[in-house]
Specification:
Length: 217
């Protein structure tokens, strides 16, 4: 083979290798202590599909963010994400958006997402709770995530069969955390969403094994 052709072959192989490496997903989002999906799902009931229960209003879950430590739950979540606060206002802070994997400036353009949407919780059983129970649920950090306004709006009130984090590394984490929320509050999940969550985490295990990641999720 001529030297020039060998050079072209090596260049093509190098380009292909570089493209493969850059396209590989980064290690998955982790949360110490979060149980495996298989350990949580037996404690979560299932329904054939999400019912639609009339009467949902955001105010059914309280007038807004509850007060805590001199500010509100919203500021407490931003503080836990790495924000610097002054008089309950964020003055600095950078975090990673768990839904997109992108850098998040905590001073602007951020929202606190309810992992289990309040309207979904209402449909799946929260309409039978007391007002105090609903307010506690709406302010529980277990069900709260700091994310961008754009990501939160895309998620809206959807569940896993209709929405998944844009960052594929976060999808199994999202499924596992959602399952914990559902189990903790005795809320069932629609069968299609459970199936989607199960597939996501099964694929996550395969990906980690293939890439040789030894990540404790």
């Amino acid at each position: 083979m001529r030297p020039f052709l060998i050079y072209l072959l090596l260049l093509s192989l190098a380009t292909l290798l570089a493209a493969t490496v850059t396209s590989l997903p980064r290690p998955p989002l982790t949360e110490p202590g979060l149980p495996d999906l298989a350990a949580t799902l037996p404690h979560v009931g299932q329904v054939p599909q999400r019912p639609r229960v009339l009467g949902y209003e955001r105010t059914e879950f309280g007038p807004g963010w509850a007060a805590t430590e001199g500010c509100t739950v919203r500021e407490a979540m931003l503080l836990s994400a790495g924000a610097t606060l002054h008089d309950c206002r964020v003055t600095a802070g950078i975090a990673r958006d768990p839904f997109t994997g992108e850098e998040l400036d905590l001073r602007e353009g951020v929202e606190i997402d309810h992992l289990m949407p309040l309207s979904a919780a209402w449909d799946l059983g929260a309409h039978r709770w007391s007002a105090a129970q609903r307010q506690a649920f709406a302010n529980d950090p277990l069900n709260l995530v700091v994310t961008s306004r754009a990501a939160n709006q895309r998620k809206s009130d959807l569940l896993p069969a209709a929405w998944q984090p844009a960052d594929r590394r976060a999808r199994c984490w999202y499924a596992r955390r959602l399952a914990v929320v559902a189990a903790t509050y005795g809320l069932p999940l629609p069968a299609a969403d459970v199936a989607s969550m199960t597939r996501t985490c099964r694929m996550d295990v395969v990906t980690r094994h293939w890439l040789g990641w030894s990540v404790d999720l």
